[in-house]
Amino acid sequence: MPASLSHDALPPLAVTLGDPAGIGPEIIGKAWAVREAHGLSPFFVIGSSRAISAVWNGPIARIGSPDEARAVYGSALPCLEIECTGEIVPGQPDADGAHCALHALEIGIGLAKSGVASALVTGPVGKSQLYAVGFTHPGQTEFIAERCGIARDNAVMMLAGPSLRVIPVTIHIPLRDVADALSVDLIRVRALVTARGLCRNFGIEKPRLVVAGLNPHAGENGNLGREEMEIIQPAVESLRAEGLEISGPYPPDALFHESMRETYDAALCMYHDQALIPLKTLHFDEGVNMTLGLPIVRTSPDHGTAFGIAGQNIASPGAMIAAIRMAEKAVRGRLTLSESACG
Ligand SMILES: NC(=O)C1=CN([C@@H]2O[C@H](COP(=O)(O)OP(=O)(O)OC[C@H]3O[C@@H](n4cnc5c(N)ncnc54)[C@H](O)[C@@H]3O)[C@@H](O)[C@H]2O)C=CC1
Ligand SMILES: NCC(=O)COP(=O)(O)O
What separation in Å is there between the alpha carbon of 126 and the centre of ligand 1? Predict the structure, then answer.
């Protein structure tokens, strides 16, 4: 946490616009419009004001630096301008927009690292648009980790909603590569970072973790796959021996029903959709993606760019509002902890 942050004068949160042709501009404008009803801490957007005014008719105030945000926040959406050169057409992403999204992300990371912004909330980006302009990271998570000097495996993606938190142990890789990517070490590091992250960001001192199996029925004693016996179980046992409150592997199909969810604080899942399907089914409009293991607080709405509805004024700001709220809460929570509180 940058030493400059204190409870008294929390700097504004930085919110990146994401792809200017996606729904980012609309949901950020809509989030600002309901800031009072939702008690949102001051934030500013980093991106093209042209993209926002194309889809949202509220007031925008261009600011020269984040410290101007608080003064205008009550009357207009503060915007740290990123000039996008090309035409911006909602629903029609292009290379210029991808460059703008990346530029905003880079600036947002820098501001959060320096403490000029109290946290980073990222708007949705189109991954294929980023890949097409030479982005070599799987997603924003790994890019932010690199910029913060954190090894990729130590930056843990967590998706969180009111009744469920999930961690995809493997993230953006093809399904056919998942089994080969799993290892005792990877599960161990994801679990350890998760436990510390739940303590630092949510104040859960002794988090209860569960681990899903990979195969149907968690492998059925090795008859339906051996990853549980050879990788997941040894990882869980070694973590338990070190004092972590963790159990599994559990059959994935029975891990997410209501009474089971009440028994844990987070579920480690073996691949992206094993984690994100239950989360988005339960909490699509309030789901937040938080990166654990970073020196900064970073959140994002759980959904993507939704190019198909961009510019139609029908996108819900719910997950963006939840992402802003969760970021602020985590910043305030971290400020109350001593450096050694979470191990
Ligand atoms: N945090 C991020 O930057 C994320 C980016 N993506 C990217 O977004 C792009 C599109 O991905 P999809 O799989 O289509 O997922 P998506 O989340 O953009 O859209 C899935 C469905 O949900 C709807 N939807 C999404 N957000 C909504 C909102 N706020 N209000 C109302 N409806 C909403 C869309 O219209 C669509 O029907 C991809 O390039 C993907 O890489 C996807 C997930 C997260
Ligand atoms: N499905 C979650 C997602 O795509 C978020 O990725 P990231 O860009 O935040 O790493």
Answer: 9
What's the chain's Rg over C-alpha atoms?
20
* Residue 165 DSSP SS3: strand
The full set of domains in the chain, from first to last, is: 1-150+294-343 (3.40.718.10), 154-293 (3.40.718.10)
- Percentage of residues in the chain having pLDDT higher than 90: 94
Contact 217, 250 (CB under 8 A): no
Torsion of CA 8, 11, 15, 16, to 10 degrees: -160
| End-to-end Cα, the chain, rounded Å | 15
Which bin fits 215, alpha (ψ -120 to 50), beta or left (φ > 0)? beta
Higher pLDDT, residue 343 or 127:
127
pLDDT in tens, 125-154: 999 999 999 999 999 999 999 999 999 999
CA of 156 to the centre of ligand 2 (A): 11
Ligand nearest to the CA of 25: 1
Who contacts 273 (Cβ-Cβ below 8 Å, separation ≥6)? 175
Residue identifier of the C-alpha nearest atom 20 of ligand 1: 306
Count of Cβ atoms closer than 10 Å to residue 70 Cβ: 18
Output the six-digit token pair for 68: 């101007």
| Closest of 28, 106, 4 to residue 324, by C-alpha | 28
Q: Which residue has the tokens 């990271």?
A: 137
pLDDT at 60: 98
Beta carbon of 289 within 6 Å of any ligand 2 atom:
yes
